[in-house]
Specification:
- By secondary structure, this protein is mostly helical.
- The chain has one domain: Tetracycline Repressor, domain 2.
- It is built from 8 helices and no strands.
- The radius of gyration is 17 Å and the shape is globular.
Length: 167
């Protein structure tokens, strides 16, 4: 406890540092994919790539997914901090991409805000609860297979573009 106070000032400040680090990592990774200046990409393809990148980032850090799920269901003041630092910036990044794809007629007529929520919640929850999924589908025991199946399942309802075959 003394080290926490020494380096962060309090447990709350340590928690905030974890949120800030997590947010920066996730947002930077998705933003680097989403903001690629490639005029040849359709709105749907740009959105698909951002979605796949988010899955990759979260699969690379499953404890981050567990942390986000745990903190997002708790009713306390820390949720607001997480919302402002992680959820809102991701929403502000992905929702315009969803809206562009809807307006271009490249994906179904969905509410962009609800699509953002259902996609990000599905990614986080699937990764956070991965150990339970083994009971239903032993084919996803390997990290590569889990990631592949997650990409296939989660992008289908949203962008209807199949992922390349299993590695």
């Amino acid at each position: 406890m003394a080290m926490i106070n020494h380096f962060f000032g309090s447990k709350l400040k340590l928690w905030e540092a974890v949120i800030d680090h997590t947010a920066q990592k996730v947002i930077n990774a998705v933003q680097s994919t989403a903001c690629q200046d490639d005029a040849s990409l359709s709105s749907r393809e740009r959105l698909r790539r951002a979605m796949l990148q988010l899955i990759d980032v979260m699969c690379d850090a499953p404890l981050m997914a567990q942390f986000v799920v745990r903190e997002s269901i708790q009713e306390h003041a820390r949720f607001e901090y997480m919302y402002l630092r992680l959820v809102k910036p991701m929403h502000d990044l992905l929702t315009p991409m969803i809206r562009d794809a809807v307006e271009a007629g490249e994906i179904g007529d969905v509410d962009p805000d609800f699509m953002f929520f259902t996609f990000t919640a599905s990614v986080s929850m699937a990764i956070a609860a991965r150990r339970y999924s083994y009971r239903f589908s032993p084919v996803i025991e390997s990290d590569e297979r889990f990631r592949h199946e997650l990409k296939c399942v989660l992008q289908q309802p949203f962008v209807a573009q199949p992922v390349a075959s299993t590695p």
